[in-house]
Amino acid sequence: MQANRQFDPEFFDINPLFARPGEATAAPRYVLGADPMEPETAYQVIHDEIMLDGNARLNLATFVGTWMDDHAGRLYSEAFDKNIVDKDEYPQTAAIEEYCWRMIAGLWHAPEPMETIGTSTIGSSEACMLGGLALKRRWQQARRAAGKPTAQPNLVMSSAVQVCWEKFCNYWDVEARFVPISEEHRSLDGHDLANYVDENTIGVVAIMGVTYTGAYEPVAAISAALDEIQERTGVSVPIHVDAASGGMIAPFLQPELEWDFRLERVHSINTSAHKYGLVYPGLGWIVWRAKDLLPEDLVFQVSYLGGSMPTFALNFSRPGAQVLLQYYLFLRLGFEGYRAVQQSSQDVARYLARGIEKIGAFTLWNDGSDIPVFAWRLTPGHTRNWNLFHLSDRLRAHGWLVPAYSMPDDLSDMTVQRIVVRNGLSLDLAARLLTVIEQETEYLDRLEGPMPVEGQHPGFTH
Fold first, then answer.
1. Which class would CATH give 72-329?
2. What's the pLDDT tens digit per position in 46-78?
3. Which residues are CB-neighbours of 363 under 8 A, at least 6 positions away?
4. Sheet containing 404-406: which strands, arranged edge to edge?
5. Distance between CA atoms of residues 112 and 203, nearest Å
6. pLDDT in tens, 219-269
7. 3-state secondary structure (DSSP) of residue 184
8. Cβ(280)–Cβ(251) under 8 Å?
9. Which of left, alpha, beta for 173 (phi over 0: left; psi -120 to 50: alpha)?
C-alpha cells in the first residue's frame, strides 16, 4: 500500500514538492530525456539549479543591467513575443524603435536628428559590426571610384579595445592595428597615430568608457590628430565612437564634453541600452550622423508577411520587448531622471574609489569620474605575500564579484581590479562592500608567508 501511495491522485495534493515523481532522479544534462516531466518539476529543477549562480545585484564585474522596476517587468511580460525585425506585423513597435534612436541622435548632437539614420541591435557587439561594415564599404567604394585597390583595409584602435572589434576584423578580413596603451598614454589619445594610419585605414575606433578601466578616450584629441594627418597626407579617416557605456552617461553627466556628432569626423556612434541605458539585456543602438554615411547597398528591402521592409542587421529574429522597455524609460525618466540616476551611480563609484584609496594598499588607475567605473592596482612594494587575484577570491566568498585581470599588451605585467557601479547598487550596499574590502585586506596583510598563485586566472573583464 505504501509503495503505491505516490500514484494516488489525492496524494499529489499533500505530497511535499521534493517527493513528487521525477524529483528523486537527476535531470538529464546532455541527452534529451525519453519521457515527459511534470511542468512543476521541470520548473523546480531549473529554479534550483540557477541558485548556484552568483547574485546578479552583487556582480560588480558586468556592465549589463540587472534591475528594472515592476512596471518595466509587467511591460516586458506583455511584449516578449514580439519580433522587432517583423515591422509589418508589429508596426507600432517599429515606430517606437524609430522614436528611440532619433531621441538618441538628438542626445548625441546629430546635426539633423530627423534626417539621420539608425537602428536597434541585439547589443553593442552587433552595433559595432554594423558600424565597422559601413566604414569598410564606404572605403571600398571610394577606392574603386579612384581606381585604387581594396584588398588591404585596416582599422586602428587602442590595445584596450573591447573584444568585439577584434572579432569584426577577424570575421570581415580587416587588419586590426592596435595602438598600445602605457603608463604615459593610458588610452588612445592621438599620440603616435600617424604611425598607424594610412590610405588603407577605413576608420579609427574611439572608446567612450574603456572596459578595462571605465575611462573615456579623448575623441576630440583623436579627431585633431587625424586633422593634422589629413593636412599633411591628404588621407581623410573617419571615427566610429564605441560608446557602449559612455553613450548614455556623457550626455547627462558631462554635457560640455565634445565627443559626439559635434565633431564632424565622427561618422557613427553605438551604445548598449542594456548597460547605462538601464534596460534588461540585450539591446543596443547605432546612429550615423547623416544618411549618406550608411551605404545604401548594405540595407536590404525584404518581403516578409505581405509587406516590404528595410533591414540592416545581422539577426533577422530578435526580441522587440527591450525596445519598448527603452521607450518606457525615456518616458518615465526624461532627461532629468536619467541625469539623476547616472549621477547617483557615479556618486557611489567615487565614494568607493575614495574609500579604497584610503586603505593604503592600493593605487587608483582612475576614480569613476567618467563612467561610474574605476580600477585600482596594488601599490608597488606593498606586499609580496598576496595579489589582487587573492583579494578577488576573498570577496567572492562574501558573494561579491569584483574581477582581477591583467592589462593589455605593454602593461600586461600589471594586474588591476575593477568595480562597475550600476543602478541598483545603493550607497548602503557600497558601504558594506567597502567594509569587506578593508577587512579582507587586513587579513591578507597579516599573512606571514606568501599565498599560492597556482591556478589563478583573470576574472570577467568585458
1. alpha beta
2. 998 998 888 888 899 999 988 899 999 999 999
3. 357, 376, 377, 378, 379, 380
4. 362-364, 373-378, 415-420, 404-406
5. 23
6. 999 999 999 999 999 999 999 999 999 999 999 999 999 999 999 999 999
7. coil
8. no
9. left
